[in-house]
């Protein structure tokens, strides 16, 4: 009997230990698929890019001789690369500010008691369902110098896609159009989370709409605006679709942003080492700018 009871106790203890191990491992097993996906589609390409940036590559993208940092040195000696950095920063600035302001104004408009509010909200959000490639084709037709609606509306014959200045303006307009709808959706959601009591209290105290906007609505909306700012800057640095379809980086490299420059170096010039180095530079630029934004967040963003 004693021997049997000992065996039962041992089995129970073993079962308890197994259950404890399973309980410890179970949460990690759930995240294994996510980790595998991240390793395969994010971290592996990232580290492979760093690796390739240190080598000279052949036309197939296979690493050859070790080049060290010569790819990076050559980049900063290349006027085309310097131009692409400048163009990218210009594009980010020119598209981010108007897109946020337009999204904010549309969201504030739809937040008021407005007839057909649902219809307007749907119309403003519709561009979000359009891919950048489809948007580029639509806007190419609108910017057509002969049959385009934009020139017809302006009463002028502007070479939107043949002039360096107007080419940059054209792709920037498409970028603003695509981002404004996303901003509208996020800002509308942020406005709905503002306690109505605060706005009503300001009204009772005699504040007009601009005073309520400045002292109540915008401070409460600052976390949403900060998020939207980050999203717009990242989208600006990663823009590619409309450039590839509308201008191919031209005219005269006026729209040759960094991502398109990477694409052209890799798949047209077969300079995979240089393209990888450009990718790392782009990553570092975005990382530093995002870091600076989060440093600024503590001073101007209110979460309470």
TrEMBL record:
<feature type="transmembrane region" description="Helical">
    <location>
        <begin position="122"/>
        <end position="143"/>
    </location>
</feature>
<feature type="transmembrane region" description="Helical">
    <location>
        <begin position="89"/>
        <end position="110"/>
    </location>
</feature>
<dbReference type="InterPro" id="IPR000515">
    <property type="entry name" value="MetI-like"/>
</dbReference>
<keyword id="KW-1003">Cell membrane</keyword>
<dbReference type="GO" id="GO:0005886">
    <property type="term" value="C:plasma membrane"/>
</dbReference>
<keyword id="KW-0813">Transport</keyword>
<dbReference type="InterPro" id="IPR051393">
    <property type="entry name" value="ABC_transporter_permease"/>
</dbReference>
<feature type="transmembrane region" description="Helical">
    <location>
        <begin position="275"/>
        <end position="294"/>
    </location>
</feature>
<dbReference type="GO" id="GO:0055085">
    <property type="term" value="P:transmembrane transport"/>
</dbReference>
<dbReference type="Pfam" id="PF00528">
    <property type="entry name" value="BPD_transp_1"/>
</dbReference>
<keyword id="KW-0472">Membrane</keyword>
<feature type="domain" description="ABC transmembrane type-1">
    <location>
        <begin position="85"/>
        <end position="293"/>
    </location>
</feature>
<dbReference type="InterPro" id="IPR035906">
    <property type="entry name" value="MetI-like_sf"/>
</dbReference>
<feature type="transmembrane region" description="Helical">
    <location>
        <begin position="28"/>
        <end position="46"/>
    </location>
</feature>
<keyword id="KW-0812">Transmembrane</keyword>
<feature type="transmembrane region" description="Helical">
    <location>
        <begin position="163"/>
        <end position="186"/>
    </location>
</feature>
<comment type="similarity">
    <text>Belongs to the binding-protein-dependent transport system permease family.</text>
</comment>
<feature type="transmembrane region" description="Helical">
    <location>
        <begin position="216"/>
        <end position="237"/>
    </location>
</feature>
<keyword id="KW-1133">Transmembrane helix</keyword>
<protein>
    <submittedName>
        <fullName>sn-glycerol-3-phosphate transport system permease protein UgpA</fullName>
    </submittedName>
</protein>
